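Many introductory courses stop at the sequence. We go one step further.
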Amino acid sequence: MLNHKHDNPTFLYCQQEGSRRIQKALTIQNQHEQEKTYLTDCFAISFAKEKNKERRRESRDLQPNQTNHERED
């Protein structure tokens, strides 16, 4: 029964190699997804910080007599 696919060394090698390559591809895809998520989060955080700075500036402009002793940057 040497021709049975589970006993064939070439089949076993190809199966293992194929599995390894699929796992490697999934790992790379996962890394790309993580990078996209990081960049998206980083952009969102930066955008939110800028919006908060704008709001604080507008708030200071609307209330010029108020002292600004708690300034955040």
